[in-house]
User: Which sequence fits this backbone?
């Protein structure tokens, strides 16, 4: 309804531009009734004007949002691309970078996970940066803490394996479940369970949350590809097209 009202206002403004030389507030009641009747008749005869106005409004809003996002990415580039603590996968020297803000408990993140993996496997020239962004409650935070602890204690290769396991997990990330994952990859579960509660681990997560707030990220997954900030799940084919576009720019 708001879109229609805005579009109507735009259409009325366009249609009545010559008449606006006279302030509408200076009209008498009878003049205002005539004016309204003329506008209504015009819109009834030319309803496509509403669609044109809606399309124009949405295009302008999208352009403004893209410009704002580009500014946000530029302002926060160092924290996004070179924080020194996030997992870096794919091709570290790739000509296009994908950054993902993700939550292990998010169903759309779980859906996107294998598609991102296939894209990185198919295109060997993408640098991939993963940001732990737990926003869906205590279980999200627990899983992220465990993953960050693995990255700190055991390095990126083990982190990648554990991250995959956490994304595939269907139950709660209980201590027993996390111990089972650690044991499965021959990791020191006791050390990891202790490390995940550390201030150092929480600092990484707090920094990612603060970065997400500055970037106006309110949901997961959220991707950064080139100078685009993409909020929400993106199918592999669409993401591949966005990468190709970024590569040309």
Assistant:
């Amino acid at each position: 309804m708001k879109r229609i009202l805005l579009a109507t206002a735009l259409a009325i403004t366009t249609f009545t531009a010559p008449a606006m030389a006279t302030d509408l507030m200076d009209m008498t009641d009878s003049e205002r009734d005539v004016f309204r009747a003329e506008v209504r008749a015009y819109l009834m005869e030319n309803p496509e004007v509403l669609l044109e106005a809606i399309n124009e409004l949405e295009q302008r809003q999208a352009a403004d949002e893209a410009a704002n996002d580009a500014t946000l990415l530029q302002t926060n580039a160092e924290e996004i691309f070179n924080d020194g603590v996030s997992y870096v996968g794919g091709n570290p020297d790739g000509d296009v970078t994908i950054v993902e803000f993700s939550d292990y408990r998010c169903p759309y993140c779980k859906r996107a996970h294998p598609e991102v993996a296939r894209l990185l496997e198919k295109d060997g020239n993408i640098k991939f940066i993963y940001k732990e962004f737990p926003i869906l409650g205590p279980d999200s935070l627990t899983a992220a803490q465990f993953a960050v602890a693995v990255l700190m204690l055991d390095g990126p290769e083990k982190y990648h394996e554990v991250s995959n396991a956490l994304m595939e997990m269907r139950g709660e990330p209980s201590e027993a479940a996390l111990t089972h994952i650690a044991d499965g990859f021959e990791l020191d579960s006791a050390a990891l369970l202790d490390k995940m509660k550390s201030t150092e681990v929480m600092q990484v997560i707090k920094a990612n949350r603060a970065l997400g707030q500055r970037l106006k990220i309110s949901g997961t997954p959220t991707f950064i590809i080139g100078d685009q900030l993409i909020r929400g799940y993106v199918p592999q084919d669409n993401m591949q097209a966005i990468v190709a576009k970024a590569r040309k720019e």
Q: What stands out?
A: The longest strand covers residues 96-102.
